[in-house]
Write a structure and sequence with these properties.
Blueprint (H helix, E strand, L loop, with lengths): L1 H24 L2 E2 L4 E10 L10 E4 L5 E5 L4 E5 L5 E4 L2 E2 L5 E2 L2 E6 L5 E5 L4 E5 L5 E6 L11 E3 L5 E8 L7 E7 L5 E7 L14 E5 L5 E5 L5 E4 L5 E5 L23 H12 L4 E8 L2 E7 L11 E7 L4 E8 L2 E5 L5 E7 L10 E9 L4
Amino acid sequence: MHQGISLFIVLLQLIVTYPITLCVEENLDFESVFEKKLESEFLTDGLQFGSLWQIRIDSYGNLLFLDPKGCQVCLFNKIGKFIKRIGAKGQGPGEYIHPLAMEVDYIGNIYIADHSSRRINKYDKNGRFVSSFLLSSTHWAPDELIVVDSKKNLYVGGFKVDMNKPGEGKWIDKYDQKGKYIESIIDRESKKTWLLRMFPVFCFDIGPNDLIYTAEIDKYSIVVRDTKGNYIDKIGTIPSYFREPSSTSNFDSSKYKSFEKVREALINLSKTWTKIIRIEVVEDVILLVMEMNNVVKGINCKYLIDIYDVEGNRLYQGIKTDYKLLCSDKLGNIYFLLYTNEEEALDTSPKYEIGIFRLKKSS
């Protein structure tokens, strides 16, 4: 009888405590984790703005909008007032043809990478052109982003192919402040060659002590590396809501008559699985963002966010949101796109509503 009572108590504890743990960790509402500090509407009237690809925060707290379609980088203040453009369209010093990535370093210098010329332009904190350099000859154009470490070295995302082993290569090229090529780091792990045609397929960020946190689009895994690309640790276990690409997934580009058709087919294929689309290190935590594509029953939001500390401990899992994570700043503020009419604006004057959030302090 005593054993029966003990077993009943254990079962009761499991029934009571398990749902509580699940509720704390999974399927959280956005507002339970993030606290809004400011919301602003950014109007692009008269700017011939095409599409918002990326945002960075300058040393004054202003927002840099990178618009590759309109070939411009526009500077706004926090309340949405346009200030000026940084650089200009062209092929001369400080100019670009198809800007696709940018970064602001610790002292406020602004870097803008041009996909077409494979050039990195550097501007000072006031937007004045300083210098530029070309990427190494075997490095694909900078498709993802630039990150700067504490020594002002630049880490430029964009696959560098191994000419002797098709489909293999490195994800990041490293340059010093003067544009001198240092090395290429981080081997590609995925064996699905068609993934290379997607854009982007690799994300990374630099955290405390210049540790690099990386992920590939088709794997639920945060790999921690040093500045030489050496493996240190792996963070995260695959959650129930993550769907990998099918092992039988293949892609034959020869079936399509144009690049646009290839791109459209790849986009459709990508919607059949869950994608890791962003890593953002905010002070001492890591935000891992997944695009859901309605492939998991019962989850109809656009994104889920998992949060870990830099030691690898999971803090929150499955934060549901339709807001797109844009960037963070050095004060721990996190910027989300709340609304845009970009597609309906037909390249005229799209507007963007952006919210500035902070993580709520745990009680």
